[in-house]
Amino acid sequence: MSNSTDLMINISNLNFTYLKSGKHAINGIDFSISKGEVFGFLGPSGAGKTTTQRLIIGLLNGYHGNIEILGKERNKWDKSFFEEIGVAFDFPNLYLKLTAEENLKLIGSYYKNQTNNLDELFDEVGLLKDKKTKVENFSKGMKMRLNFIRSIMHSPKIMFFDEPTSGLDPVNARIIKDKILDMRRKGKTIFLTTHNMTVAEQLCDRVAFINEGTLSAVDTPGNLMLEHGSAYVKIVYENNGLKVNKSFDLTSIGYNQEFKHILETKKIQTIHSGEATLEDVFIKFTGRELI
Amino acid sequence: MRWLTALKADLFFQFKQGFYYIYAILSLIYLIIFSQISDSVLQFVLPIVMFTDPSVLGLFFIGGLLLLEKEQGILSLTYITPLKIYEFVMSKVISLILISLLAVIVISLVSYNGSVNYLSLISGIILTSIIFTLYGFLIASKAKSINDYFVKMIPQMILLIIPCILIFIFPNWWFLNIAPSVSALNLVWGAYHGIGYPQLGINITYLTLISFIMYRYTIKAFIKGMIVTD
Predict the structure, then answer these.
(1) Shortest distance, CA B76 to any CA of chain A (angstroms)
(2) Per-domain residue ranges of chain B
(3) Nearest CB neighbour to A87, from listed B80, B229, B230
(4) Lesser CB count within 10 Å: N end or C end of chain B?
(5) Judging by DSSP bridges, how do beta strands A158-162 and A85-88 pair with one another?
């Protein structure tokens, strides 16, 4: 873990209740995110992911507890806060009647830090040849990619991405994931909300599980899978001409007499070890699936 | 100077949405009709048209603009940029003032040969546009969709226009001048019928004060109703 001077976001005892519905959406959560970290916020729909993100960004007010971001309490920040952060919602916010280039120029003009090379950004997400096309003629995937570069064009220190690969085909999802990893290499801090386990495993240094407004675990995906999932060894062998599948717990495999016996006496076809997936661990913690 | 950037953005967005084509066509229709009317009749018709232009169209346009931007997610997008809310509101108001002023001045210059007090006309148009646009902001803050906006806006608009009709029927009902719409009408009407400096000063001061109060209230209502929830 990094030391406290590297802390970009520090949340402590955060509580939030929606006034209209009276729903207690966030229930005393704590976590912190360090500089250069990709932090995944995982949970099913309605778990409190987006509410937490909107509280940190400032689109929701009236929270209790602390949201310290870049060393300052969230409600003490003025609009200069948005020079420091970049946000891409899961719904692409764009001017539909304008071209991709007009969109970036127009929105970019609100920032002090303006990029000089829009073409490079377009090229990185495969939109260079479409930059003169009106956004209303874009596919969902194209809008998502444009929305993504819109959120990073002013070189913010912290980025908030909500389901960044939603609606993208595998090739374009890979482009976005690579771009996120590239930003991490450049020391950017990324807060990513998703219910996509694969994305979380591939990108996040640490993940937090949220369910019904409560955090149940915060750790690296590797640790969570190792400590809370049961690893196994799956073996396929021949027995009297028949193919047999058998799984054994990896932790006690060295003492398992049946496993030893199969290895010594049977013709082995395949043998694989496996770890629990992040989704298995999530279900173990929360009793809910990530849908 | 970020508000200037926002103003440019608004003018560009409104142009791309086709708002100016509608405005140009309407102005052209006015010009054609007015070319057939004598100056003595125009002296009565013109101030009414000049007054309804920034007020009614201001109300229509701002609702359309805001809810169009809301539906496209532009309002949330604008909020997560360094653009301040007052800069956002100001640029919208100024963009609608500019379009109204341009249309009114062109129509007045082209179609009317009588004398016009342009100080009274311009201040009247600017203040009418500010008040009605801010009023549109308030209604839009509570509207869920463009249709909902118009359902909510029309009774409010009638409420503002009724005192303007009453003042023609009962010119001695001085208390009608308290209505901002009547005060604004005084300025525009006065531009074609003569207006004394004291009356000009009183109306401008009163409407400026109302604009300021509405502006403060609009910013709060707008953030609460359309962007930040709690």
Answers:
(1) 8
(2) 2-32+41-227
(3) B80
(4) N
(5) parallel
